[in-house]
Specification:
mainly beta, 11 strands, 53% strand
């Protein structure tokens, strides 16, 4: 079955960096667009960034442009989210997401807390 497992979250000071990973299994990873979402306390889940199956096209929410970078390694079935210049407002649970045919899949999420 499809599994998405996030890792790499934690507590970081403002201005710091974190790298999230999402290990995928149970499907042909290289054939599908992958996404990162986040959900802050008392807020709706929002799309952060998207990467196409070859990695050739990426899109970012305005709030993270220039600070976050999505990438993927199709040989390792893994998608990454490099987060730099982190701000307190980036605090959220970050989720890996894929839509495969008509089915939507989510990881369990990894907590990112930006605080001094």
């Amino acid at each position: 079955q499809v599994q998405l497992v996030e890792s790499g979250g934690g507590l970081v000071q403002p201005g710091g960096s974190l790298r999230l990973s999402c290990a995928a299994s149970g499907f042909t990873f290289s054939s599908w667009t992958m996404n990162w979402y986040r959900q802050a306390p008392a807020k709706e889940r929002e799309l952060v960034t998207t990467i196409t199956r070859s990695g050739g096209t990426t899109n970012y929410a305005e709030s993270v442009k220039g600070r976050f970078t999505i990438s993927r390694d199709n040989a390792k079935n893994t998608v990454y989210l490099q987060m730099n210049s982190l701000k307190p407002e980036d605090t959220a649970v970050y989720y890996c997401h894929a839509r495969i045919w008509s089915q939507v899949y989510w990881g369990r999420g990894t907590q990112v807390t930006v605080s001094s």
